Amino acid sequence: MAAVTISKVRKSYGTNEVVHGIDLAIPDGTFVVLLGPSGCGKSTLLRMIAGLEPITSGEIRIGDTLVNDLHPKDRNIAMVFQNYALYAHMSVFDNMAFSMQLKKLPKEEIAQKVDWAASILDLKPYLKRYPRELSGGQRQRVAMGRAIVRDPAVFLFDEPLSNLDAKLRVQMRTEIKELHHKLSTTVVYVTHDQIEAMTMADTIVVLRDGYIEQMGRPLEIYDRPANLFVAEFIGSPAMNILSGEVAAEGGAPVVRANGVSLPLPASAAVKPGQQVKYGIRPEHLRPLRDGAGVPARVSVTEPTGPEIHVYADIGDKEVCAISKERLDLAPGSEVRLAPVLDKVHLFDTATGSALAR
Ligand code: ADP
Ligand code: MG
C-alpha cells in the first residue's frame, strides 16, 4: 500500500498541453475517483501514474519513491482496463498466474495466490475455463484477479465497467468497493459516470479540460458544488439552472428569472441588480398542485416507481421537479414549483463560481 503524490504535473502532446499542472495528494488506502467528461485528461493522468505515458513536467511519487523515470513494472502498480485484455488462449488460472510465472515464483506459491484471489472474487469454479467461456462480469473479475495477485501498492482502474450491461455494472460497482474494503489498497479509478463516482469514491476529483475543478467527498461535492460546471455535471436528473437578476421584494431577496420571482434564503450574499445563476436540484423543487411556489406548465411526467419526475416550463425554461407523492399532472396543466430555500445554489453569472448562501 502507498500514497500517491502528484505535483505540478503537466502533459503535452506536441504543442498541445492537455494536463495543466495538476496537484493531487492521494492518501494511502484511499479510493479516489477521477471524474470528468470524455477528453478531460483522466486516462492521460492515470497512464502517467502507471508509467505508460511520460510526463512533460512535474513529479509523481508512489509512497516515498519518485517514479518519474521508473518503468511501469517497477512502480508496484496494477492496472485494470475497460477491455480486460485477457489472454484468450489461457485458462482463468493461467491468466491470473501469468505475471507470477514470468517472475519464476515457486509453483506452490503461485497456486496459493491464485486460489486466494479466486476465492475473494468468487472465481474458484471457473479456474479451468477459457475467457470465451465466461460472462462479461466473470471476465472483469479475472482481470481484477490478475491485478490483485500482484499485491500492488496501488490499483489503477480505467473505466473498467464500461463494457458491462447496466445491471452488471451496478453489481460490479459493489464488488469493487467490497474488494477495496478487504484489501485496503490505494485505488485510483477513472470514470465519466457520475453515479459510479458518487457510489464508489472516498474522494472524487472532478476534472475538466486538464484542470481540477473540485475535489472532495461525494456528498460534499453534491451538496456544495464549487461552480456551475460541477453543479451541472454531478446529479441525475441534473440541477436546474435559471439565469436571472437579484431583486428585493417586500424586503426579501429574490431572483427574477423567466418571468417569475424565485425565493432566496435571507442569508444569501447578493445585492439587488446582481446577475446570478439560480440552481436548484430536482429533489429540492417541490411540485404542488396549488399554493406557494412559482407557476409552471407541465410538459411531461415520468414515474420511476419510488418517485415522479415532473418536467415543466417556467416561462420558456424547462425544469425538472421530483415528487415522492403520486401527483396526477396532465401535460399542459398548471403546477406550482416550490424550491426548498436552504437548498438553493447561487453562482456568479460571469465566473460560474458558487456564491455564499
Ligand atoms: P479522457 O480519458 O478523460 O477521456 P484522455 O486523457 O484520453 O481523456 O485525453 C485527454 C486529451 O488528450 C484529449 O484531448 C485527447 O485528444 C488528447 N490525447 C490523448 N492521447 C493522445 C495522444 N496519444 N496524442 C495526442 N493527443 C492525445
Ligand atoms: Mg479515457
Oligomer kind: single chain
Q: What is the averaged pLDDT score?
A: 94
If helices are DSSP runs of H or I spanning 4 or more residues, what is the number of helices? Answer: 8
- Strand count: 20
CA(first)-CA(last) distance: 41 Å
Ligands, deduplicated:
adenosine-5'-diphosphate, magnesium ion
Query: Structural class of the secondary structure composition?
Result: alpha+beta
> Largest beta sheet: what is the strand line-up?
6-7-8-3-9-10
Tell me the radius of gyration. 25 Å
Proportion of strand residues: 35-45%
What gross morphology would you assign?
elongated
Question: What profile does the largest beta sheet have?
Answer: 6 strands, mixed
How do you describe this structure in short?
The chain is of the alpha+beta class. It has helices at residues 42-50, 92-102, 107-120, 136-148, 166-183, 194-200, 218-223, 228-233; strands at 4-13, 16-26, 31-35, 57-62, 65-66, 77-80, 154-158, 186-191, 203-208, 211-216, 240-249, 252-257, 260-263, 275-280, 285-288, 294-303, 308-314, 317-323, 334-339, 345-348.
Walk me through what this model shows:
- The longest helix is centred in the middle third of the chain and has 18 residues, at 166-183.
- The protein starts with a strand and ends in a 9-residue tail after the last strand.
- It contains eight helices and 20 strands.
- A six-stranded mixed beta sheet has the order 6-7-8-3-9-10, with helices on both faces. The chain has a five-stranded antiparallel beta sheet with strand order 13-12-11-14-20. A five-stranded antiparallel beta sheet has the order 15-19-16-17-18, with no helix packed on it.
- It has 357 residues and is of the alpha+beta class.
- The model has no long low-confidence stretch (mean pLDDT 94).
- It has helices spanning 42-50, 92-102, 107-120, 136-148, 166-183, 194-200, 218-223, 228-233, and strands spanning 4-13, 16-26, 31-35, 57-62, 65-66, 77-80, 154-158, 186-191, 203-208, 211-216, 240-249, 252-257, 260-263, 275-280, 285-288, 294-303, 308-314, 317-323, 334-339, 345-348.
- It is elongated.
- Residues 42-43 line the site of magnesium ion.
- Adenosine-5'-diphosphate (ADP) is lined by residues 13, 18, 36, 38-44.
